[in-house]
């Protein structure tokens, strides 16, 4: 279990080493492990990653948290960035909240904007958002108060809270319950008639937005319109080329990364998330120091050069895993056919309505984390 803590902390640890060249005020605190509990007061920014993350102590700066389960009950003086299987925010946030999860609950006071994405998103009656609300998800319920405007897109959207400004809502079904209050105009687009229950109030009136040229079944179908289809096709072609070139240049290296994902999936995921977040932050901090400028440039060069191509390693892992399910006398070794199959599978998963973006992000974190975990061990 200590190994998990060590690997998950590499991303933030590397950022801490580099950030040491910056002014002391730019420091931050990192926590990682299978289960992370922060109950003490934190005077700086907090980076936390693990299987289960609970932050119940006050944090003076920003909070970046990722894990299978993330509970944020402490007061956050800065902004909040959170991602996980289940994310719950109950503590007050001094700036904006940006969160993504399979199940996401916001039940706190937020001084700035709230940008949320997930399969199930619930803005509870306890939530008070000081500026705008932006939500993308499957099932969305807005029961809290929004001080300005709301932009909501989902499969099922229910509003029974208060939006003081205007609202723009898109979904298969949109329902305004009796307690819903919208101070401005409601612009909507739905596949079925808008449901406004008796007692709901829309001060600025309602207006149906012009639907896109393609019908709803095309928008919801995998790949959707022609533009998205060609975009998905180009992405698949790029990943296929990267994967085949990498396998041709270093089959042993690609196999090592595949085995890293297979045996340390969670570690790769956490490490990848930590690297994606920590490297740009550390690079920005380095720009404030003369000696750190070239280091920041080199770090970002490696970061950008390996971030997106790392999806090819996730594809190779997925393809080899599927080929291994075929009964054979001798289990197959990773090869180019695994890359081809994996790219096809990922392209199809990326096109899944509402969930494709989350799968895309997960695959990116896993591949990126496994790649740099392997490099770290090699050096």
TrEMBL record:
Residues 222-376 form the DUF8173 domain. Residues 1-27 form the signal peptide. The chain crosses the membrane at residues 229-249, 269-295, 301-325, 337-355. Pfam families: DUF8173 (PF26514). The keyword Membrane applies. It comes from the Bacteria. Keywords: Membrane, Signal, Transmembrane, Transmembrane helix. This is Polymer-forming cytoskeletal protein. It comes from Candidatus Segetimicrobium genomatis.
């Amino acid at each position: 279990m200590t190994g998990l803590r060590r690997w998950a902390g590499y991303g933030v640890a590397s950022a801490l080493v580099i950030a040491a060249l910056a002014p002391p005020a730019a420091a931050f605190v990192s926590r990682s492990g299978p289960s992370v509990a922060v109950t003490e007061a934190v005077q700086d920014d907090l980076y936390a990653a693990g299987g289960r993350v609970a932050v119940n102590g006050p944090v003076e700066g920003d909070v970046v948290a990722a894990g299978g389960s993330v509970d944020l009950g402490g007061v956050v003086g800065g902004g909040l960035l959170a991602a996980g299987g289940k994310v719950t925010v109950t503590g007050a946030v001094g700036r904006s909240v940006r969160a993504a999860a399979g199940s996401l609950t916001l039940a706190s006071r937020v001084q700035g904007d709230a940008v949320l994405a997930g399969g199930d998103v619930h803005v509870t009656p306890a939530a008070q958002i000081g500026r705008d609300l932006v939500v993308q998800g499957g099932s969305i319920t807005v029961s809290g108060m929004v001080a300005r405007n709301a932009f909501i897109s989902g499969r099922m959207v229910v509003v029974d809270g208060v939006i003081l400004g205007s609202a723009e809502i898109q979904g298969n079904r949109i329902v305004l319950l009796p307690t819903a209050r919208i101070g401005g105009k409601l612009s909507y687009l739905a596949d079925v008639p808008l449901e406004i229950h008796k007692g709901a109030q829309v001060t600025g009136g309602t207006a149906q937005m012009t639907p896109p040229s393609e019908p709803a079944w095309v928008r919801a179908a995998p790949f959707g319109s022609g533009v998205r289809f060609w975009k998905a096709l180009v992405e698949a072609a790029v990943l296929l080329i990267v994967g085949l070139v990498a396998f041709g240049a270093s089959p042993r290296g690609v196999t090592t990364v595949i085995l890293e994902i297979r045996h340390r999936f969670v570690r790769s995921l956490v490490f990848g998330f930590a690297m994606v977040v920590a490297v740009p932050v550390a690079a920005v901090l380095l720009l404030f120091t003369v000696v750190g400028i070239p280091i920041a440039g080199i770090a970002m060069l490696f970061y950008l050069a390996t971030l997106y191509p790392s999806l090819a390693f996730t594809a190779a892992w997925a393809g080899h895993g599927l080929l291994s399910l075929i009964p054979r006398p001798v289990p197959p070794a990773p090869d180019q056919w695994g890359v081809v199959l994996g790219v096809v599978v990922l392209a199809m998963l990326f096109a899944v309505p509402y969930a494709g973006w989350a799968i895309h992000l997960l695959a990116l974190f896993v591949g990126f984390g496994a790649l740099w975990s392997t490099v770290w061990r090699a050096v």
